[in-house]
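A.,

Following up on our hallway conversation. C-alpha cells first:
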C-alpha cells in the first residue's frame, strides 16, 4: 500500500511539474470564450478558444491559434512582465442556418503579474473568410465583414 501511495504521489509531482506550461481563462470581446493555452517551446504556444459570439446574432465560435512571443518589455518590473504576441490560426462557427470559416490572425499586448499566477491582455483577432447562409429553400455566400470587429480582453490563470 505504501508503494502504491508513493507511486501516486510521484505521478502527481511529475504532472504538477509539467503543468507549468498550461493556462486557462476567459476572453470577453465579440462574445465570451473559454481560453486554454499550452506553451510547448519557450516562446511558442497553442491557444484554443470556444464560446459564443454575438456579432451578427448569437453563434457558436471556435478558434485555434499558433502564437509566438514577439518581445517582452520591462515597463513595470515590480508589477510584472509585459509581452507582445502574434499568431495565426483557424476560426469556425455558426448558428441555425448560418456558418462561417476563416483564417484568423492575432496580436496581443499583456502583462503576466509577478505576485499572482495571472495574465491580463488585450488582443485583436481579425478573421478573413466566407459566411454561408442556408435553409428555407435557398442559400447564399458572402464575405464575413464582421470578422474584422474582434477586439477582446483576456484573463488567464497560469499553472
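Then the amino acids I'd put at each of the 159 positions:
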Amino acid at each position: 500500500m505504501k508503494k502504491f501511495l508513493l507511486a501516486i504521489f510521484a505521478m502527481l509531482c511529475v504532472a504538477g511539474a509539467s503543468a507549468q506550461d498550461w493556462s486557462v481563462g476567459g476572453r470577453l470581446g465579440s462574445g465570451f470564450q473559454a481560453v486554454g493555452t499550452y506553451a510547448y517551446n519557450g516562446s511558442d504556444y497553442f491557444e484554443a478558444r470556444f464560446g459564443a459570439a454575438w456579432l451578427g446574432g448569437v453563434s457558436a465560435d471556435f478558434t485555434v491559434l499558433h502564437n509566438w512571443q514577439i518581445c517582452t518589455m520591462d515597463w513595470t518590473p515590480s508589477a510584472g512582465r509585459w509581452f507582445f504576441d502574434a499568431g495565426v490560426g483557424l476560426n469556425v462557427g455558426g448558428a441555425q442556418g448560418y456558418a462561417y470559416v476563416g483564417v484568423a490572425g492575432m496580436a496581443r499586448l499583456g502583462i503576466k503579474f509577478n505576485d499572482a499566477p495571472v495574465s491580463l491582455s488585450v488582443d485583436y483577432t481579425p478573421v478573413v473568410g466566407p459566411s454561408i447562409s442556408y435553409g428555407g429553400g435557398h442559400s447564399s455566400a458572402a464575405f464575413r465583414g464582421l470578422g474584422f470587429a474582434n477586439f477582446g480582453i483576456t484573463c488567464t490563470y497560469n499553472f
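The chain has one domain: 21-158. Curious whether your intuition agrees with the design.

B.
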